[in-house]
Amino acid sequence: MQTTLLVEDASFFEKAIVKKLHDVGRHQIMVARSYAEAENCLNLPIGEPDLALVDLTLPDAPDGEIVDLCEKRNIPTIVFTSRFDPKTRSKMLQKGVIDYVLKDSPGSLNYVADLIRRLAKNPKIGILVLDDAGVEREAISRIVMKHLYKVYKAASTDEALKCLSENSDIKLVLADYFLPGKDGFAFLKAVRRSQSAEQVGIIGMSAVTNSDNRVRFLKYGAADFVDKHCSPEELLLRISQNLDYIYRIEELNNLAMRDSLTGLYNRRYLLAEVAGEIKSWSGADDDRNWLALFDLDGFKGVNDNHGHDFGDAVLTRFAGNLTSLSKENDIVARLGGDEFCVVLRDQSESEMRERLSAFLNDVETSPIEHRGLSINIRTSIGVAPLLDGDLHEALKAADLRLYSAKRTGPGQLVTTG
Fold first, then answer.
1. What count of other Cβ atoms lies within 10 Å of the Cβ of residue 344?
2. Distance CA 24, CA 120 (A)
3. Residue 139 CA to chain centroid, in angstroms?
4. In sequence order, what are the residues at sequence separation of 6 or more whose Cβ sits closer than 8 angstroms to the Cβ of residue 368?
5. Where is the Response regulatory domain positioned along the sequence (predicted)?
6. How many whole angstroms separate alpha carbon 134 and alpha carbon 136?
7. Residue 407's pLDDT band (boundaries 50, 70, 90)?
8. pLDDT at residue 75, rounded to an integer
9. How big is the chain by its Cα radius of gyration, in Å?
10. Which of 36, 153, 220, 380 lies most in the core, judged by the most C-beta atoms within 10 Å?
């Protein structure tokens, strides 16, 4: 579990910060109101905290000594203080604190909460630093690592393109546009041929002031531009703002491709994304990929007799059952109403029949309970092979077989005819 060391001697701020920490999912908090209490907390046998949030002015340590204590224990530290002193701020940033935030407005507390939320995600986010100057490349990398990002480095356009192709976790590139051979413009154009700004953001960098080059870089598809010698805080803010844009686009795309009730992919995703992916599967293994359509038997009666709230519970539970049925490369979607679809990959017809027959039995013998009510449900299944990677033809064939299953009776599986 994530543990936070909070060192704050003002009770008002302590309560406000603890509430914010809970809001961002950090529930294990060690609170200290002095340097001595912080030292005692760190000596407890519960393990080191993975984050410290500290004030600089404490009753027994008025000059920021608490930062030295955290640094000595290798604890990533955020300073949250009312002390506005440029020299102190510069000194603390040089010590390697994650950030130096002033308690000067209600927005400061929100900023700290957002920062902590991002820090939890950042170790999974790759950032590529492209610069042919080794000293500057390392200096920029050290700044980026302060916010716990996973940093990749490249000294040339070819090296950077190779790194991008091999590491799908890279979401942002910091690219110098003055490079020997293929310059930053060549890199940018090459990236934009295969990846959009919503997939990989690019921030241009230069130590030379040239507005024409900056404009050109932005027109070629860069998201932002910074001076190489800007403050570490500005660089990290630009990084977080550009990543926030990418996250928002990802979230909107995800909402557009997901069913809001069950969380499964929706019909739009199946027809827009999966159809193209399936095309690439066509070949020797055509007889090992299948499309199965599921339709709940008597679902209208469930809604009529028990209400839509119970009906939603049934759909959610059934979606969970389908997710459990699927394997790593399978695709599960809700097509609408009580109709679902699963793309089953790489299995023989007998293996497919065995899996779906077992699924029918599991569904029938596992009652759904909701608000004191309990019912058993059944589902009909129609299956068709994905021949020639043609999703639309498979949907037509599976739909006919699903109709045949429904006419035969509840809980039937039809795979031929």
1. 23
2. 10
3. 27
4. 313, 314, 317, 374, 375, 376, 377
5. 3-118, 126-243
6. 6
7. very high
8. 94
9. 28
10. 380
Cα–Cα distance for residue pair 410/407, rounded to 1 Å: 8
Interhelix angle 232-257/134-145, rounded to 10 degrees, is 60
Identify the CATH number of the domain defined by range 265-414: 3.30.70.270
Instruction: Specify whether domain 125-257 bears CATH 3.40.50.2300.
Output: yes
**Whole-number percent of the chain with pLDDT over 90:** 64
Residues 141-147: what's their mean pLDDT? 93
| Residue 255 scores a pLDDT above 90 | no
**Which residue in the block uniquely carries the two structure tokens 């506005």?**
84
Pairing of strands 290-296, 331-336: unpaired
Burial class (CB in 10 A: 0-12, 13-18, 19+), 25: exposed
- Topology of domain 3-120 in CATH is Rossmann fold (3.40.50)
Distances (CA, A) of 302 to 181, 224, 381: 68, 54, 19
* 190's tokens: 């090459």
State how far the Cα of 356 lies from the Cα of 362, in Å rounded to an integer: 10
Rounded to whole angstroms, the Cα distance separating 313 from 232 reads 50
Q: Same topology for domains 3-120 and 265-414, yes or no?
A: no
Residue 108's φ and ψ, nearest 5 degrees, are -65, -40
pLDDT (tens digit per residue) in 44-61 = 887 789 999 999 999 999
* CB-based contacts of 100-109 (< 8 A; 24+ apart in sequence): 100/233, 103/13, 108/80, 109/16, 109/17, 109/20
* Cα dihedral value 128, 133, 134, 138, nearest 10: -50
